[in-house]
Design goal:
Layout lengths: L1 E5 L8 H16 L3 E4 L5 H12 L4 E6 H5 L9 E5 L2 H9 L4 E4 L4 H15 L7 E4 L6 H12 L12 E3 L5 H6 L16
Parallel strand pairs: 1-2, 1-5, 2-3, 3-4, 5-6, 6-7
Helix pairs in contact: 1-2
């Protein structure tokens, strides 16, 4: 399985985030899955890649050229694909992925996550989306999503578009048990 991971490059966040990213990378590689991520060598991104590589995993990074020019790219990856824009990076990360996992991160991570959720709501991306809730990071976001449903901007069924994992070891079971989402979601995309 090719699993797209959205995560951060911050090195100032709590070390628990990088530890969880490393553990997740090791778990995914240990189970034979390909990790596709943003290509950076720092923060949770670097930890994720290092974890997967420590188990001999296949790790593909998608990095904008301007970031490579800053020497942000991880040099030990199976493949580092350079793209021209952030938009192209997001498209390449999601293309051919069998699942998306979002780790705690900043505005870039949240933008990627919300794009995946939006595409799923429209029936364009049908695969599982899992939020790794390290240190309860996503709990306020999930409360906000419940408010969005409560205010009728989304239908109650839309909260089934993502699953929550508390620990890295919960991610693969969450992917495996995610409810099916099909193309007729487009017909239910508008909240009524």
């Amino acid at each position: 399985m090719r699993i797209c991971i959205y995560c951060a490059s911050s090195q100032k966040s709590d070390p628990a985030y990088r530890e969880a990213a490393f553990e997740l990378g090791a778990i995914l590689a240990g189970e034979g899955h390909t990790v596709v991520f943003g290509g950076s060598s720092i923060g949770s991104m670097g930890a994720l890649a290092d974890g997967a590589l420590s188990k001999g995993g296949t790790v593909i990074g998608i990095l904008p050229r301007f970031m490579a020019d800053q020497e942000w790219g991880h040099q030990g990856l199976t493949q580092l694909e350079l793209v021209e824009t952030m938009r192209e990076r997001k498209h390449r990360l999601l293309t051919d992925s069998d699942a998306v996992v979002a780790l705690p991160g900043g505005c870039g991570t949240l933008e990627e996550l919300f794009e995946a959720i939006t595409l799923k709501r429209l029936g364009i991306y049908l695969n599982p989306i899992v939020l790794l809730n390290t240190r309860g990071f996503f709990s306020p976001l999930l409360a906000f999503m419940d408010q969005i449903v409560g205010e009728h901007f989304m239908n109650p069924e839309h909260v089934n578009m993502w699953q929550l994992a508390t620990e890295p070891s919960d991610v693969l079971p969450a992917i495996a048990t995610a409810p099916a989402w099909n193309r007729d979601a487009r017909n239910r995309a508008v909240a009524r």
